[in-house]
Every structure is written in C-alpha cells, then in structure tokens.
Automatic annotation (TrEMBL), chain A:
This is Hemoglobin subunit beta-1/2. CDD domains: Hb-beta-like. It comes from Physeter macrocephalus. Belongs to the globin family. Residues 3-147 form the Globin domain. GO terms for molecular function: haptoglobin binding; heme binding; hemoglobin alpha binding; metal ion binding; organic acid binding; oxygen binding; oxygen carrier activity; peroxidase activity. GO terms for cellular component: blood microparticle; haptoglobin-hemoglobin complex; hemoglobin complex. Signal peptide: none annotated. Keywords: Heme, Iron, Metal-binding, Oxygen transport, Transport. Heterotetramer of two alpha chains and two beta chains. It comes from the Eukaryota. One of its GO terms (biological process) is hydrogen peroxide catabolic process. PROSITE patterns: GLOBIN.
From TrEMBL, chain B:
It comes from Physeter macrocephalus. The lineage of its organism: Eukaryota, Metazoa, Chordata, Craniata, Vertebrata. One of its GO terms (molecular function) is heme binding. This is Hemoglobin subunit mu. It comes from the Eukaryota. GO terms for biological process: hydrogen peroxide catabolic process. It holds the Pfam family Globin. The keyword Glycoprotein does not apply. The gene is HBM. InterPro entries: Globin, Globin-like_sf, Globin/Proto, Hemoglobin_a-typ, Hemoglobin_oxygen_transport. GO terms for cellular component: blood microparticle; haptoglobin-hemoglobin complex; hemoglobin complex. Belongs to the globin family.
Length: 147, 141
C-alpha cells in the first residue's frame, strides 16, 4: 500500500495531467537502457541499441516506453490497490519475461529523473517524495506475484 | 574507469554548477531528507526543524568534495582518502544510503539543467557518483 497525504496525492495527479505519456515513457525507457546498459538484456530483439543516440531514437524503445508508462498511469488511478492492479503483469514479468524486479526499481528512479528534467523547479522535493513513493509501490506490486 | 569522452561529460556538467555549491548542496540535502527521512538520522547536528544556514553550509561542503573528485577523476582514491577515513571510522554512514543521495543528485541536476541534461551526462554522472561512493565506503572493513 502506498501512503500518500492528501496534498501529495493532489500534487501527483496535477503533475500527471501535464505528462505526455508517449514522450516521457519513451525517454524514461531509453535513459534506463543507456544509464544501466545491462538492462538491454531484455530488449535484444529491439534492433539497434548500439549508441545512446540509437537507443533514444529507436522506434521500438519509444513504443514500448509509451506502453509501460500508460500502464503506470493506470496504476495511479488505483493507488489503494496496486498489488491487485498489477497482479497479471506481475505474473507475466515473472513467468514469461523473467525480469529481475530490481529493474522495476531502476526504471522508477529513471522516471523520477525524467520528470524532474521536464518540470524543473516545479518538481519540488514534496512532489519527488510523492512520485518516489508511487514508483516504489508499483515496483513492489510488479514483484508481488514472483515465485 | 572513465573514458576521455566520459571525463569530458563530467567536467561539462560540473562547469554548469561550479560556483553554486552551497545552494545546490542545500537542495540536494533537503531532497534527501524529504524523500528519504531515515537519512536524517546521520544529521542530527543540522537541527530539527532543519536550520537553513547549516543546510547551506553542509551542502557546500558536500558539493565541494564532489568538486575535488571532479578535479582528480584519475585518482579518486588518493584524493578522497581523508574523506574515506572519516566515513569509515567516524561517520559510518550505512552504504545503502549512497544510492539514495545519488538519486537526489540526479534529480537536482535534471531539474536545474533540464534541456541541457543529456542522456550521456546522466549516464556518466551515475557512473562517476557511484565510483565516488565506492571509494568513500571502501575502508569500512
């Protein structure tokens, strides 16, 4: 369960309303793959990941980033039940995709940095706190069904 | 080990924040304490509620140490040896806290540099700050 104050929740929602899911999602996934290159192990079928530029411009990275962030956005509507919301995705990431849950934590942190980059001063310590809580909650929810 | 290209990115970013060690450092610490409250346990001397003057002073100290690291990228161990001793024998900050500080550092850089904060800079600074943390905790045992 993610414990957000009323203020944190409204701040979080207000910022999310301004997020371009396609742009931010693609950037977050791209930056994950460049900053932590070992994460590329899950995306060998994505084609050219040979340079930072290639990764950031890769259309499959962009598309997948958008998909991931859209799913995250859905999660924001169910902060009271992240485990339930992400149960099926958790099973998928364990049983079919074999993704170490540490990767969810890395992506969550990169997403926070990307939001800071886009929103600048507006991304206050309080907003960072709210988002760090949520990305941690989502990562835990995605790891919940692992066995 | 940083390549020449990577060292250039380190310096490039540092040049953008040099001269602003105090406010950057203060914001870094403020974010650390706000987002990860357990880190405050190492900073009782900064007061509760946080004293702004102390925050600026300590923030400056932290960023100045980063500046030392930037100037001695080729030999972090030697340059940071006194700080490594301090952390190992006096401060004894649990090593798991350094990634939290690094995350806040990334957020400060990203929120201030915005459009200028390229993916290459983010990658290199993550590598550089992680290497710094390794050096600071190397003498722990």
């Amino acid at each position: 369960m993610v414990h957000l104050t009323g203020e944190e929740k409204s701040g979080l929602t207000a910022l999310w309303a301004k997020v371009n899911v396609e742009e931010i999602g693609g950037e977050a996934l791209g930056r994950l793959l460049v900053v932590y290159p070992w994460t590329q192990r899950f995306f060998e079928h994505f084609g050219d990941l040979s340079s930072a530029d290639a990764v950031m411009k890769n259309p499959k990275v962009q598309a997948h980033g958008k998909k991931v962030l859209a799913s995250f956005g859905e999660g924001l509507k169910h902060l009271d039940n992240l485990k339930g919301t992400f149960a099926t995705l958790s099973e998928l990431h364990c049983d079919k995709l074999h993704v170490d849950p540490e990767n969810f934590r890395l992506l969550g942190n990169v997403l926070v940095v990307v939001l800071a980059r886009h929103f600048g001063k507006e991304f206050t310590p309080e907003l960072q706190t709210a988002y760090q809580k949520v990305v941690a909650g989502v990562a835990n929810a995605l790891a919940h069904k692992y066995h | 080990m940083l390549s020449a290209q990577e060292r250039a990115h380190v310096t490039q970013v540092w040049d953008l924040i040099a001269g602003h060690e105090a406010p950057f450092g203060a914001e870094l610490l403020l974010r650390l304490f706000t987002v990860y409250p357990s880190t405050k346990t190492y900073f009782k001397h900064l007061g509760d509620p946080l004293d702004e003057v102390q925050l600026l002073s300590h923030g400056q100290r932290v960023l100045e140490a980063v500046g030392v690291a930037v100037r001695h990228m080729d030999n972090l161990r030697a340059a940071l040896s006194p700080l490594a001793d301090l952390h190992a024998h006096v401060l004894r900050v649990d090593p798991t806290n350094f990634p939290l500080l690094i995350q806040c550092f990334q957020v400060v850089l990203a929120s201030h540099l915005q459009g200028e904060y390229t993916v290459e800079m983010q990658a290199v600074w993550d590598k550089f700050l992680t290497a710094l943390a390794v050096v600071l905790t190397e003498k722990y045992r």
